[in-house]
C-alpha cells in the first residue's frame, strides 16, 4: 500500500509559521515556509534540522511551494534558501512573487533596525531568494520533474493567494494555504474543481465560527468608526500593507463619499501607492466587478484617503489611520497605539487574527495594561474592537470546499487544537472520511489505494463494448473483460489473445471439443435449427445467437444440424477449450431436450 | 482520425478534427477579403462616394441589378453592407461539434457564425487575452459595420449581382462563392457567442470529455496566442497556428510541448513572406518621420490591439530621437481605451522583459506612460467632442479598419486623399493595400506598404517542423510546393508524410489507435502471477471487472459468476501441440488406458474406442470428438491441458 506522509514543522494545531512537509511516491515537498510573529528567537523559523540534522538540505526536498505572500507563509523563505542553503525549485504565483519581497524587506527592517537583531537575513538575501522563484499562473500544470506535477487554484485570501494541487503518479494532494470561500470587496471566492485528491490539507483558522453575513460586519464596522470620529475620537486600524487594507479602504472610501464625511483618513505607508499599483497590475486576480469596471474607474485610486505623516500622531481632533503592521507587534501601528491607548474616546479596531505573544493578542484578550521590553507600561483605556475581516474560510466554507473537491482524507492545519477537534468530528460525521490533525513534528501517515496504469487493447475493449451495448441497458450489469496480461519493461498491457500471439510471434494451439447429439425430428434440417435457436434464446439470455441455414453460433460455440429429411438429425456442438462452460451448458441443454 | 478544412484563407484557418468519437474544431477564422469588393461605409456621409456612377454590364438590362454596382476609376464595387466569408457550413454539422479550440484572437472572428442558431452545444476554449482582445476586435467590427452613415446608399443587401458574376468584370467576377457570404452577426449574437467561451491558462490541461487532454501552449505571436496540444495516453496531435519565433511583447513560443507529435497541423503562417517585420518597422518609422517633418499627418489603418502596441512603443521612441516628441499620437476606436488599459494588466502573458517591469511595479507597456503624459490620446470615434477639440496636426492616427471599408479610417482617407503631404502607411498584412485603396482613387496622399506580420515565415516554419519531428504533417494546400508547371513559390517541405487540405476537403490522418489507458486496481494486480514467456516478457491470463466512468477505464477483481449461468473464461494461451506419448500417459492416469495411436504426416489421431472418442492432434490445433458424457470430457480436458505448454 503506498502512503502519503505529512509532518507539520509549523501550523500543526497552531497558527503562524506554516511549514508542512509532504512526502509521497518518493518525493518530498515543502508546503509554505513561514515565520512565527509571536517569537523573537529561533522558534520564529521552522526547525529545518528536523529534515536533515546536518548537511545539505537540497537533496532532501524536491520543491518548495508558497501559497501566498503573508509572512506566516513565506517569512522563512530567505532564511531557508540563503542561510540554510536550499537551492532547489521554489514555486509561487506572479503577484506573490512581486509582493512577497516587499513584505519581507519591511519585516527585516523592523527586526534588524528597530529591534536591533543580528543573524537575520539581509536585503540582498531577499533579492537573491526571489530570483530563484519560479512564478506560476492559475491552472497551469507545472511538471517539477518527470513525476511531480503541481497546479495552482484561486484561493481568494489575498491578492495572488493560491491553493495547490500536487500529484505524484496516481496519488494527489490539495494544499489550500489560506483561503476564503466568500467573495469580498476586492477579491473573488476560492474555487477548485472536482479533482478528488487522496488528501486535502486545509487551514482551519475559523474552524468553529460561522461568521454572520459580510454585509452586517461591514455595517457594524462603519457604524463604530463613524460613532467614534463623531465624538472626536481617533480610530487606529492596524493592517498589513497589502490585503485587508485595500478592502477596508474601499469600504471607508465609499462610505465617506456617500455620507459626505470630512474627517481625515490616512493610510500610513510609503507603500500605499506602490501597493495599490500592484493591485492595478494584477487586476486579473481581483473580483469580477473590479475587473469589469477598471477601464472607467480604478477602485484603487482613493479620493478621501491620504498618506500619513508621523507628525500627524499628535494632531488634535478626529481621524482614522490605517497603520502597519497588523498585529501591533512592532512598527508604526504600535507607536500610534502607545500614544492613543490611554484615552477613552479613541478606538482600535483589529480587523484580523493576532497570533499569541503580540500586543494585538493581549489587548484582544482584555489586557488593560501592556508592558513593553523597555519596562514601559501603557494603560489601555481606548475601546478595543475585534472585527473579523481576515479572509479565511469559516466552518461552512471549509465544508463547502470539501464538498467541491471530494477528497478521500482531510488533514487540518493552521488552527487551534480545540477548534480543530470540533471540526474534525464534524467532517468525519458528515462526509464519512478520515480526518487528521497532527501537531508540529508529528508525522501522519495516510494509506491510499494502489492504482497501476495499464494499456488495454482497443480490440478487446471494443469487442466488450459491442457485446455490452447489444444487451438491454442495465446499469447494474457487470462488465467483464478477458485477456492476457503482458509485462514488459515494467509496463503492463492487457491484450487480446490473438494480439498476444502476434506480439510474441507464436502460433496458438487451439483445443476444440465436438460432441454429437442425435435428435429425432422430421422436416428439413434448417427447420430443426430454427427450433433449436428459439430454445437457446430462451435459455441463454444476454448472449448473441446467430443463425445461418442450419448453423447456429452462440458467441464462439458452433452448433450444426445435419441429416436428411424425415430422418434422425445429428446435432454437432463444437467449442474451444476456453468456452468449456458455455459449450457444456449448451450441450447439456440439447441433451435434456432430446430426452 | 480525420481532418476537415472549412476555410479558404490559410491565415484565417478553420479545421475540424474527428478523433476518438469527438469532433474538435480548431480555430474559426473569418475571411474578410470579401469586403474589398464592397464600397466603403463612411462614418459621415460622403458626397464623393454617393455620386459615383452606377455600373451596368454591357448588353444587359436587368432592373433588379439597378443601383447594386458602382464604378470608381475603372473598378466595380458592390454598393451594399459588406459581407464576410465564414467557414463552410455544409461539411460538418455544427450542432455535432464537441469542442472549439481557439488559438488566437485573429482566428476566432467567425465564432458567432458557428455557435449561434446552429444548435451548437459544445464547449469553446480560449485564453483570457484571446477572449478579451477578441471581444475588442469583434465589437469594433460590429460597431464599424453597423455604424456606417449610409452615405453610399447601401441600406439594403445587394443580391442580384451574385447571379450575374459571369458578366461582371474582374476582380468581382473572380469572387469565390459570393452566395455563401454572410452579413456580420448582430451584437446580441456576438455577446452570446463570447459568453460561451471558457477561459484557460497556458499549460492548463483541459479534460475533453475524458477522451483526451487539450493544452494551450504559448505561441509567441500575440498576447495570449496559443498552440494547442491534444494528448491522450498514446496519441498526440499538435495544432500550430499563428506562431512566432521573433522576440516581441508576448510570451515566447513553447516549442518543447509540440515535439514528437503523431500529427502536426500547421496553419496561419505569414501572409507577407517577402517582408521582414523588423525592416518594415524601421521603414515605417522613417516614412512617418519624413511625412511629419514635411508637415503632413500619418494614418495607420490598424486593428485595435496586437502590433499596435509595438508600433506605439517603437514609433514614440523613434519620434523622440528625431526631435518630434511634440507630435501627438491618436488611437481612434470604440475599444481604444479598453484595449490600451487591458494590455497593461496582462503581466502573466507578456515577455520576461516586460514582466520584470511589473515587479517594480510599472506598467509592462510604455503606452500607459504616454497616455499619462498626454502624448497618446484615444477616442471612441472621430466626432467625439473632446477629441475634435484636442485634434492637432501634424499627427499620427491609428484607427481601423485595415480594409478601409468601414471605420474611422474611411473618413480620414476621404479627408486627406487629395493632399500629397499626408501619408497612409499599411501595417496589417490581412489585405492587399492597393485593393484597399481602390475606391479612394485618384489618390494624392502618399501610400506606403510596410506589412508587419510576425507569424512564422516559410524558412522558420521549415526549421520548426524539422525540430519538432512530427510523424505526419497536415497543411493547407497553399503552403505546399506549387503544382507542376507553376512558378516555384516558398513552401513547406518536410520529409514526413504530408496531408494537404483545401476548403471542403476531408482527409484521413495516419495515426491509428490500438491501445487505451486504464488503471489496474492493486487487489487485482496481486492476484495475477505472470509467468515468463521469454526473456523480458511475462504474461498471465486475466479476467477483470471493467468499469467505465467519464470515459476512464478501470479494471478490478471480477465478482464471482452467478451460479448456473455460463461465463467466458480468461483465455489460456497454449503455445504448442501436446506431446503424444505424454498425452497417452496422461489419459492412462485418467482411466483411459486403451488409446490407439495412428501417426500421419501432419499430426496423429488417438482413438479411444471404449469412450467412442477421437483426438486429432495437429501442429496448431487439437480437436476432440466425443460423446455427450461430461465426466469423460472433463477427464480428457485434464489430460490434454496437463501436457500442453502454456502461459
TrEMBL record, chain A:
Pfam families with a match to the protein in the record: Beta-Casp, IntS11_C, Lactamase_B_6, RMMBL
InterPro entries named among the record's database cross-references: Beta_Casp, INTS11-like_MBL-fold, IntS11_C, MBL, Metallo-B-lactamas, RibonucZ/Hydroxyglut_hydro, RMMBL
GO cellular component: cytoplasm; nucleus
Stretches assigned to the Beta-Casp domain: 245-363
Residues covered by the Metallo-beta-lactamase domain: 16-210
Main location: cytoplasm
Keyword Transmembrane: no
A single GO BP: RNA 3'-end processing
GO molecular function, one term: metal ion binding
Cofactor(s) of this protein: Zn(2+)
Swiss-Prot/TrEMBL keywords: Cytoplasm, Hydrolase, Metal-binding, Nucleus, Zinc
Cell compartment(s), UniProt: Cytoplasm; Nucleus
Similarity field: Belongs to the metallo-beta-lactamase superfamily. RNA-metabolizing metallo-beta-lactamase-like family. INTS11 subfamily.
Protein name (record): Integrator complex subunit 11
The organism of origin for this protein: Spodoptera frugiperda
Gene: LOC118267637
From TrEMBL, chain B:
Primary residence: cytoplasm
InterPro entries on file: Beta_Casp, Integrator_9su, IntS9-like_C, RibonucZ/Hydroxyglut_hydro
Highest taxon of the lineage: Eukaryota
Domain Beta-Casp: 308-437
A GO BP annotation: snRNA 3'-end processing
DNA-binding found in the keyword field: no
GO cellular component: cytoplasm; integrator complex
KW Acyltransferase (keyword) present: no
Transmembrane intervals: none
Keywords, in A-Z order: Cytoplasm, Nucleus
Pfam families linked: Beta-Casp, IntS9_C
Annotated localization: Cytoplasm; Nucleus
Protein name, entry field: Integrator complex subunit 9
Amino acid at each position: 500500500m503506498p502512503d502519503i506522509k505529512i509532518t507539520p514543522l509549523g501550523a500543526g494545531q497552531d497558527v503562524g509559521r506554516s511549514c508542512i512537509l509532504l512526502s509521497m511516491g518518493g518525493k518530498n515537498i515543502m508546503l509554505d515556509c513561514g515565520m512565527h510573529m509571536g517569537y523573537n528567537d529561533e522558534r520564529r523559523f521552522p526547525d529545518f534540522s528536523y529534515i536533515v540534522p546536518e548537511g545539505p538540505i537540497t537533496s532532501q526536498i524536491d520543491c518548495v511551494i508558497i501559497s501566498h505572500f503573508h509572512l506566516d507563509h513565506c517569512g522563512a523563505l530567505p532564511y531557508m534558501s540563503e542561510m540554510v542553503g536550499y537551492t532547489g525549485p521554489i514555486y509561487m504565483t506572479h503577484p506573490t512573487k512581486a509582493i512577497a519581497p516587499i513584505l519581507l524587506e519591511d519585516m527585516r527592517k523592523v527586526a534588524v533596525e528597530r529591534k536591533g537583531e543580528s543573524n537575520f537575513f539581509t536585503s540582498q538575501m531577499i533579492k537573491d531568494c526571489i530570483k530563484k522563484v519560479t512564478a506560476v499562473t492559475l491552472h497551469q500544470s507545472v511538471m517539477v520533474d518527470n513525476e511531480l506535477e503541481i497546479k495552482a487554484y484561486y484561493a481568494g485570501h489575498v491578492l495572488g493567494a493560491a491553493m495547490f494541487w500536487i500529484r505524484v503518479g496516481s496519488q494527489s494532494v490539495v494544499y489550500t494555504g489560506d483561503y476564503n470561500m466568500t467573495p469580498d470587496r476586492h477579491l473573488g471566492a476560492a474555487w477548485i474543481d472536482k479533482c478528488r485528491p487522496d488528501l486535502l490539507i486545509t487551514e482551519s483558522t475559523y474552524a468553529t465560527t460561522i461568521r454572520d453575513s459580510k454585509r452586517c460586519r461591514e455595517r457594524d464596522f462603519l457604524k463604530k468608526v463613524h460613532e467614534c470620529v463623531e465624538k472626536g475620537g481617533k480610530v487606529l486600524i492596524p493592517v498589513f500593507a497589502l490585503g485587508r487594507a485595500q478592502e477596508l479602504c474601499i469600504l471607508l472610501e465609499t462610505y465617506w463619499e456617500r455620507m459626505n464625511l470630512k474627517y481625515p483618513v490616512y493610510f500610513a505607508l510609503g507603500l500605499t501607492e506602490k501597493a495599490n499599483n500592484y493591485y492595478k497590475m494584477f487586476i486579473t486576480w481581483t473580483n469580477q466587478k473590479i475587473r469589469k469596471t477598471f477601464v472607467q474607474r480604478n477602485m484603487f485610486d482613493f479620493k478621501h484617503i491620504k498618506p500619513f505623516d508621523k507628525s500627524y500622531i499628535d494632531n488634535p481632533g478626529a481621524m482614522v489611520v490605517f497603520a502597519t503592521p497588523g498585529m501591533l507587534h512592532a512598527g508604526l501601528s504600535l507607536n500610534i497605539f502607545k500614544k492613543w491607548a490611554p484615552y477613552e474616546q479613541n478606538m482600535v479596531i483589529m480587523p484580523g487574527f493576532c497570533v499569541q505573544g503580540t500586543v494585538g493578542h493581549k489587548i484582544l484578550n482584555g489586557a488593560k495594561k501592556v508592558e513593553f521590553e523597555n519596562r514601559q507600561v501603557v494603560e489601555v483605556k481606548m475601546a478595543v474592537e475585534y472585527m473579523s475581516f481576515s479572509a479565511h474560510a469559516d466552518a461552512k466554507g471549509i465544508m463547502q470546499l470539501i464538498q467541491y473537491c471530494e477528497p478521500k482524507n482531510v488533514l487540518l492545519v493552521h488552527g487551534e487544537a480545540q477548534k480543530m477537534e470540533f471540526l474534525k468530528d464534524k467532517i468525519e460525521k458528515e462526509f464519512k472520511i478520515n480526518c487528521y490533525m497532527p501537531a508540529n513534528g508529528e508525522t501522519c501517515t495516510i494509506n491510499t489505494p494502489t492504482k497501476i496504469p495499464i494499456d488495454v487493447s482497443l480490440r478487446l475493449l471494443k469487442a466488450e463494448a459491442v457485446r455490452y451495448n447489444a444487451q438491454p441497458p442495465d446499469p447494474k450489469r457487470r462488465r467483464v473483460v478477458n485477456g492476457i496480461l503482458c509485462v514488459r519493461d515494467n509496463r503492463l498491457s492487457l491484450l487480446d489473445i490473438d494480439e498476444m500471439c502476434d506480439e510474441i510471434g507464436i502460433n496458438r494451439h487451439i483445443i476444440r471439443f465436438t460432441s454429437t447429439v442425435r435428435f429425432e425430428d422430421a422436416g428439413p434440417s434448417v427447420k430443426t435449427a430454427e427450433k433449436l435457436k428459439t430454445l437457446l434464446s430462451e435459455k441463454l439470455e444476454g448472449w448473441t445467437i446467430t443463425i445461418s441455414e442450419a448453423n447456429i453460433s452462440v458467441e464462439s460455440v458452433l452448433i450444426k444440424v445435419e441429416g436428411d429429411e424425415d430422418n434422425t438429425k445429428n446435432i454437432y456442438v463444437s467449442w474451444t477449450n476456453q468456452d468449456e462452460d458455455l459449450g457444456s451448458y449448451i450441450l447439456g441443454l440439447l441433451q435434456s431436450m432430446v430426452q | 482520425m480525420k481532418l476537415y478544412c472549412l476555410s479558404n484563407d490559410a491565415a484565417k484557418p478553420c479545421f475540424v478534427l474527428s478523433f476518438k468519437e469527438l469532433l474538435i474544431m480548431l480555430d474559426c477564422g473569418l475571411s474578410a477579403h470579401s469586403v474589398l469588393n464592397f464600397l466603403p461605409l463612411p462614418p459621415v456621409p460622403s458626397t464623393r462616394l454617393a455620386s459615383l456612377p452606377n455600373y451596368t454590364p454591357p448588353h444587359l438590362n436587368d432592373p433588379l441589378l439597378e443601383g447594386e454596382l458602382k464604378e470608381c476609376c475603372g473598378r466595380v464595387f458592390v454598393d451594399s453592407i459588406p459581407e464576410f466569408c465564414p467557414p463552410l457550413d455544409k461539411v460538418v454539422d455544427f450542432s455535432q461539434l464537441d469542442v472549439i479550440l481557439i488559438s488566437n484572437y485573429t482566428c476566432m472572428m467567425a465564432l458567432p457564425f458557428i455557435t449561434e442558431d446552429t444548435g451548437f452545444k459544445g464547449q469553446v476554449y480560449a485564453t483570457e487575452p484571446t477572449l478579451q482582445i477578441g471581444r475588442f476586435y469583434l465589437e469594433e467590427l460590429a460597431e464599424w459595420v453597423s455604424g456606417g452613415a449610409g452615405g453610399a446608399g447601401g441600406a439594403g443587401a445587394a443580391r442580384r449581382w451574385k447571379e450575374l458574376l459571369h458578366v461582371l468584370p474582374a476582380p468581382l467576377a473572380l469572387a469565390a462563392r459570393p452566395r455563401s457570404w454572410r452579413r456580420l452577426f448582430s451584437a446580441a449574437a456576438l455577446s452570446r457567442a463570447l459568453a460561451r467561451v471558457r477561459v484557460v491558462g497556458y499549460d492548463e490541461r483541459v479534460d475533453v470529455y475524458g477522451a483526451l487532454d487539450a493544452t494551450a501552449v504559448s505561441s509567441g505571436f500575440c498576447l495570449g496566442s496559443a498552440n494547442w496540444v491534444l494528448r491522450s495516453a498514446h496519441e498526440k496531435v499538435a495544432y500550430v497556428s499563428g506562431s512566432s519565433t521573433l522576440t516581441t511583447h508576448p510570451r515566447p513560443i513553447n516549442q518543447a510541448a509540440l515535439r514528437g507529435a503523431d500529427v502536426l497541423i500547421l496553419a496561419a503562417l505569414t501572409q507577407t513572406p517577402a517582408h521582414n517585420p523588423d525592416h518594415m518597422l524601421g521603414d515605417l518609422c522613417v516614412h512617418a518621420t519624413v511625412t511629419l517633418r514635411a508637415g503632413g499627418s500619418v494614418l495607420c489603418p490598424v486593428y485595435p490591439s496586437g502590433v499596435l502596441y509595438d508600433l506605439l512603443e517603437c514609433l514614440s521612441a523613434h519620434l523622440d530621437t528625431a526631435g518630434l516628441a511634440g507630435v501627438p499620437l491618436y488611437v481612434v476606436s470604440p475599444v481604444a481605451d479598453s484595449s490600451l488599459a487591458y494590455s497593461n494588466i496582462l503581466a502573466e502573458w507578456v515577455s520576461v522583459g516586460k514582466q520584470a517591469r511589473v515587479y517594480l511595479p510599472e506598467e509592462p507597456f510604455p503606452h500607459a506612460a504616454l497616455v499619462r503624459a498626454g502624448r497618446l490620446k484615444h477616442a471612441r470615434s472621430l466626432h467625439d467632442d473632446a477629441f475634435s477639440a484636442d485634434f492637432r496636426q501634424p499627427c499620427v492616427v491609428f484607427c481601423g479598419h485595415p480594409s478601409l471599408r468601414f471605420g474611422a479610417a474611411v473618413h480620414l482617407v476621404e479627408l486627406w486623399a487629395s493632399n500629397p503631404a499626408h501619408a497612409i502607411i499599411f501595417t496589417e498584412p490581412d489585405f492587399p493595400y492597393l485593393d484597399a485603396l481602390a475606391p479612394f482613387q485618384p489618390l494624392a496622399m502618399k501610400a506606403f506598404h510596410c506589412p508587419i506580420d510576425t507569424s512564422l515565415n516559410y524558412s522558420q516554419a521549415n526549421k520548426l517542423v524539422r525540430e519538432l519531428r512530427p510523424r505526419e504533417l497536415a497543411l493547407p494546400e497553399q503552403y505546399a510546393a506549387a503544382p507542376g508547371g507553376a512558378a516555384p513559390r516558398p513552401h513547406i517541405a518536410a520529409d514526413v508524410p504530408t496531408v494537404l487540405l483545401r476548403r471542403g476537403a476531408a482527409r484521413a490522418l495516419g495515426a491509428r489507435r490500438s491501445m487505451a489507458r486504464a488503471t489496474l486496481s492493486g487487489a487485482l494486480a496481486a492476484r495475477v502471477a505472470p509467468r515468463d514467456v521469454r526473456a523480458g516478457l511475462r504474461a498471465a491470463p486475466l479476467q477483470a471487472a471493467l468499469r467505465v466512468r467519464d470515459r476512464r477505464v478501470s479494471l478490478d477483481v471480477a465478482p464471482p459468476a452467478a451460479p448456473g449461468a455460463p461465463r467466458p473464461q480468461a483465455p489460456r494461451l497454449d503455445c504448442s501441440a501436446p506431446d503424444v506419448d505424454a498425452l497417452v500417459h496422461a489419459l492412462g492416469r485418467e482411466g483411459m488406458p486403451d488409446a490407439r495411436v495412428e501417426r500421419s504426416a501432419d499430426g496423429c489421431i488417438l482413438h479411444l474406442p471404449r469412450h467412442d472418442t477421437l483426438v486429432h492432434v495437429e501442429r496448431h490445433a487439437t480437436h476432440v470428438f466425443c460423446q455427450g458424457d461430461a465426466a469423460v470430457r472433463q477427464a480428457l480436458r485434464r489430460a490434454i491441458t496437463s501436457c500442453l505448454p502454456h502461459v
